Amino acid sequence: MSASLRFVPLIFVLFIGGCVGRPFYPLPSKMADSNRRPLQTSRPYNIAHRGSSGELPEETAAAYMRAIEEGADFIETDILASKDGVLICFHDVTLDNTTDISEHKQFANRKRTYEVRGVNTTGWFPGKFSIISFEEFISIALDAPRVVGIYPEIKNPVLINQRVKWSNGKKFEDKFVETLVKYGYKGLYMSKDWLNQPVFIQSFAPTSLIYMSNLTDLPKILLIDDVTIPTEDTNQSYWEITSDSYLEFIMEYVIGIGPCKDTVVPVADNYLLTPTDLVSRAHAHDLQVHPYTYRNENSFLHFDFHQDPYAEYDYWISKIAIDGLFTDFTGSLHKFQECISPLSPVNESSASKLLHKIALLISNGKV
Ligand SMILES: *[C@@H]1O[C@H](CO)[C@@H](O)[C@H](O)[C@H]1NC(C)=O
Ligand SMILES: *[C@@H]1O[C@H](CO)[C@@H](O)[C@H](O)[C@H]1NC(C)=O
Ligand SMILES: *[C@@H]1O[C@H](CO)[C@@H](O)[C@H](O)[C@H]1NC(C)=O
Ligand SMILES: *[C@@H]1O[C@H](CO)[C@@H](O)[C@H](O)[C@H]1NC(C)=O
Ligand SMILES: *[C@@H]1O[C@H](CO)[C@@H](O)[C@H](O)[C@H]1NC(C)=O
């Protein structure tokens, strides 16, 4: 690798590496190290929402590796399935917004309209055009120089189970859990096995979580959307699924909830209103609360925070007392937490190994 190559912008090079050169990542983990620094459990979890997605294209290898470098406790992803049954990391139900599909005229005949959560949606649906697979995502976490958890969402299970058929009548949920088991994920929250390979399984669909609770005892998080949006599978309202009786019911299956943050603390005219009692009621049921999504951009920061993302983190961690944060800017959250509740210094030698690996990826890439 020439010296000048090292300075090619990472964003460009790694994005190409991630999309074109598949498979690009050795599986299973080759760099596992039993002496890795453990997961921190003394402060709210830093959950890298779609990787370091404020800096690099979401859900790409580059975004995940950057998030690890910046101090993520968990790397977060959405899992969908391609038509041929491969689990992939991808958020949207169409390829339009986050890929260059429109430039590939050979795929024009794959444009479809499907009903997705009650709305007819037209676009290119995942065919063979995958980004990174669930397995590649897992291997990025397992290869990290310290213990890094994963936080995969089983996305749109109703749609996927309608459109994708696996052999032996297997469902999306079965394939999802099989993949986790294949790579050694097991055990209750905070068990030795779990701490070795931490994971939270998340879903907006209670039926999927309840089904998967029969397949694995790994901790699960019920995601909760905006107050106006019913659950995608059971058509229950926000008020139903945040009632005390529902929390009582669901606590048997999940370890916590992942609510949209504006529903925990409602907002009017871009100012915060009085916080709801959702966090205290969840905590009373021994449920963790991991709200989403924290973002540095001015357009997402409420006026109360004076364009200061640290002020927002301080409010949510000190006043609202949440247990984890989905953030697009893992690096900012990490720096904030290091200021207010520092961990012992990062092992620089391990950190430099990761940088070396990124350099290797570049030199093995298609540039
Ligand atoms: C694509 O982006 C537009 C504009 O942000 C948004 O309205 C639309 O919902 C996105 N489509 C998908 C499938 O996410
Ligand atoms: C979606 O389109 C199909 C076919 O045109 C139609 O039968 C169905 O009612 C539409 N669904 C919605 C929710 O508009
Ligand atoms: C869980 O497994 C038991 C025993 O096989 C079965 O009776 C039950 O219906 C299953 N529950 C769900 C939600 O699939
Ligand atoms: C969902 O629930 C609402 C409110 O109870 C009801 O009006 C609507 O018809 C239901 N939709 C479906 C698809 O069941
Ligand atoms: C830092 O990591 C290196 C390489 O993994 C290891 O040899 C060294 O013992 C670690 N140092 C500390 C203080 O943990």
UniProtKB/TrEMBL annotation:
<protein>
    <recommendedName>
        <fullName>glycerophosphodiester phosphodiesterase</fullName>
        <ecNumber>3.1.4.46</ecNumber>
    </recommendedName>
</protein>
<feature type="domain" description="GP-PDE">
    <location>
        <begin position="44"/>
        <end position="337"/>
    </location>
</feature>
<keyword id="KW-0319">Glycerol metabolism</keyword>
<dbReference type="GO" id="GO:0006629">
    <property type="term" value="P:lipid metabolic process"/>
</dbReference>
<dbReference type="Pfam" id="PF03009">
    <property type="entry name" value="GDPD"/>
</dbReference>
<dbReference type="GO" id="GO:0006071">
    <property type="term" value="P:glycerol metabolic process"/>
</dbReference>
<keyword id="KW-0378">Hydrolase</keyword>
<dbReference type="GO" id="GO:0008889">
    <property type="term" value="F:glycerophosphodiester phosphodiesterase activity"/>
</dbReference>
<keyword id="KW-0732">Signal</keyword>
<dbReference type="InterPro" id="IPR030395">
    <property type="entry name" value="GP_PDE_dom"/>
</dbReference>
<feature type="region of interest" description="Disordered">
    <location>
        <begin position="33"/>
        <end position="54"/>
    </location>
</feature>
<feature type="signal peptide">
    <location>
        <begin position="1"/>
        <end position="21"/>
    </location>
</feature>
<dbReference type="InterPro" id="IPR017946">
    <property type="entry name" value="PLC-like_Pdiesterase_TIM-brl"/>
</dbReference>
<comment type="similarity">
    <text>Belongs to the glycerophosphoryl diester phosphodiesterase family.</text>
</comment>
